[in-house]
Write a structure and sequence with these properties.
By secondary structure, the protein is of the alpha+beta class. The protein has seven helices and six strands, in the order αααβββββαβααα. The protein has helices at residues 7-19, 25-33, 41-50, 109-115, 134-165, 174-199, 204-209, and strands spanning 55-59, 72-76, 83-89, 93-97, 104-108, 116-123.
C-alpha cells in the first residue's frame, strides 16, 4: 500500500514524534482526513484529544513566541507546507521542521516572523497519551505492507516456472540463462524498491530494509 501523506498529516506525525506519543502514521492520516474540519487546526486538536493528548490553540503577538513551550505547531503563510513544527527558540533564531518534515532548519527570528501569523497549537503528553491498540494496528499495517512483496514474489516464481518450461535442451546453457535472468530481476527490483521508498517512506517494511541498501 502506498501513502503520499498530506503536508498537514506529515506535520502532525512529526509533532507526535517530538512529543514521544505512539500513534501509527496510517492512523494519524485516516483520523485527520476523516475529520469534518480537515485540514484546519481544529481537526488536529480534536485528533490529539482522541489520543488523550491535552492541547490548546490560540494566537499571540509574534514577539511573545518565547512564552510558548516547544515543540508546538505554528500556522504559517507557506502554501505548500502551512504548518511548521517549532522545536527550539533562542534570542536570535527559530529552529523548526517544515519542508518534508524530515530535517530541521534554523532561521533568524525576523525571517520566521515574516511567515508566521502568530497562530499556534501546543500540546503536552501524559501517561495516558497514545493510540489505543497501537501494537495491534502497527502489526496490521506491517502485514498490509507485505501484500505488494508477496505479489512480486508470486510473479517472480511464476516467471521462473515459465522460463523452466522453455528450457529443454542443454545446448541452451540453462545456468547462464538463469544467471542473466537473476541479474535482470535485480536491476528491476532495487530501483522499484527505492522508488517505492520515495513514495511511501512511512511504510514499516521499507523503513527496516531500504536504509540497508
Amino acid at each position: 500500500m502506498f501513502h503520499q501523506f498530506d503536508p498537514n498529516v506529515k506535520a502532525t506525525i512529526s509533532f507526535l514524534g517530538l512529543l514521544q506519543v505512539k500513534v501509527n502514521d496510517t492512523t494519524a492520516n485516516e483520523t485527520l482526513q476523516n475529520h469534518p474540519d480537515w485540514p484546519g487546526l481544529l481537526c488536529i486538536s480534536d485528533s490529539l484529544n482522541k489520543w488523550n493528548i491535552p492541547n490548546g490553540a490560540g494566537k499571540i503577538d509574534v514577539s511573545k513566541i518565547d512564552e510558548l513551550p516547544v515543540p508546538f505547531l505554528a500556522n504559517t503563510h507557506n502554501r505548500e507546507n502551512p504548518l511548521a513544527v517549532v522545536t527550539e527558540i533562542t534570542e536570535t533564531t527559530i529552529k523548526y521542521f517544515q519542508k518534508n518534515y524530515t530535517a530541521a532548519v534554523t532561521d533568524s527570528r525576523d525571517i520566521f516572523f515574516k511567515h508566521w501569523d502568530g497562530v499556534y497549537l501546543i500540546a503536552e503528553r501524559n501517561e495516558n497519551s497514545g493510540e489505543i491498540d497501537y501494537i495491534i494496528n502497527r502489526r496490521k499495517a506491517f502485514l498490509n505492507s507485505l501484500i505488494p512483496v508477496a505479489a512480486c514474489l508470486a510473479l517472480v516464481l511464476l516467471s521462473f516456472v515459465l522460463l523452466s518450461n522453455h528450457i529443454g535442451s542443454a545446448t541452451l546453457r540453462p545456468i547462464g540463462i538463469y544467471g542473466q535472468y537473476l541479474i535482470l530481476l535485480t536491476g528491476v527490483f532495487i530501483p522499484s524498491l527505492l522508488l517505492w521508498y520515495e513514495i511511501d517512506k512511512s511504510n514499516p517494511l521499507l523503513e527496516k530494509y531500504v536504509p540497508v541498501l
